[in-house]
Amino acid sequence: MVAASRAKASDRAALLKKLFPIIKKHYKVHVPKGGKPVLETMLYAICLEDSTVDEADASFKKLFTEFPDLNEVRVSTVGEIERAFIGQTASEWRAFRVISVLKFVFDKSYAFEFESLRKKTLDLATKQLAKIKDLSPFVRDYTLHEVTGAHLIPIDPALARLLVWLGLALPNQTQEQMGEMMKAAVRKAEVEAFVFTLRALAADQTLHAAFDLTKYPAPEGGHDTDTAIDRLTHLIKHGPEKPSKSAAVKTVVAKPAPTPTPTKKVADKKAVTTVASPAKTSEKPRKKEPAPSNAAAKKPVVTKKAVKKSR
């Protein structure tokens, strides 16, 4: 039993070797065409994050067909650019990042051209991209890998959740830490195969709920890599497991008890009281005699002096 915290690079590599045939059997793995200009590579990475390649291709095409040019995109509002990302998650964030990238590049050179990044070393290129506000780790690493050819593994949130579920990463790791750790198990020439094969599984809307750590927390030390294949086979066949009935009962018990409904006897009693009250009020009210004052109520005390005077 090898938990993620104790898994070695060789364990991860062995698991990936078994995973790829299973995933390719159930999904069509698409690898996007490379060779795009640097700026377009960054925009495509924004479209690709947490999405399938088909979804990214469609959004990328819309971005260049619904707007006459990139300058029009730069000066548009977030709400207007969101049209290009209809059907994708976090469309507002995608639109905001597109504007942020275009503004940075244009303000730097007054042109929509960023090819100078290819000539920089990995360290200088990383520092240059770090200047772009709100650029996600995935977009940064994807761009650096595509442009500089560096051995980087871009991990987006969807892929990160899948890696944790498979036992290839720990739930407390960042995306950057996961990418660094996986470099020991994934060779430079296999980065595209790794990223896009696992992406086909991670982006499956029918299964992605199973990778949600808020619903299905990972055990302490991470998931067991030895059970990953069996768990994946079961997941693809049966789908995510539903909460057990015992868990549902616990949830109900934990809720505050509702206000008790009056019993039949109490309800009948209230009904009788309600009916009897009007009958009393229909009678003519009796005149009440004034209550005697305290002085009148008390009997007079006869003293000896009073008797003598009366005589």
Q: How is the topology of this model organized?
A:
Blueprint: H1 9-26, H2 38-48, H3 53-65, H4 70-74, H5 78-81, H6 91-109, H7 122-130, H8 137-148, H9 157-166, H10 175-182, H11 191-202, H12 228-238, H13 245-254, H14 264-282, H15 294-297, H16 304-310
Helix pairs in contact: 1-11, 2-3, 2-6, 2-8, 9-11
Describe this entry's structure for a reader.
- It is a single chain.
- The protein has 311 residues and is mostly helical.
- The chain is 55% helix and 0% strand.
- The chain has 16 helices and no strands.
- Helix 1 crosses helix 11.
- The longest helix is centred in the first third of the chain and has 19 residues, at 91-109.
- The N and C termini lie far apart (122 Å).
- The relative contact order is 0.12.
- Residues 244-285 and 291-311 have low confidence and may be disordered.
Features:
311 residues, mainly alpha, disordered C terminus, 16 helices
Gyration radius, rounded? 38 Å
Number of helices: 16
Q: How many beta-strand segments?
A: 0
**What order do the SSEs take from the amino end to the carboxyl end, as H and E?**
HHHHHHHHHHHHHHHH
By secondary-structure content and strand pairing, the structural class works out as mainly alpha
Distance between the termini: 122 Å
Q: Which strand-content bin applies to the residues? A: under 5%
CA-based shape: globular
Which stretches are poorly predicted, pLDDT < 50 over at least 5 residues? 244-285, 291-311
Compute the average pLDDT: 83
Measured as a percent range, the helix fraction is: 55-70%
Largest β sheet strand count, sense and barrel closure = none
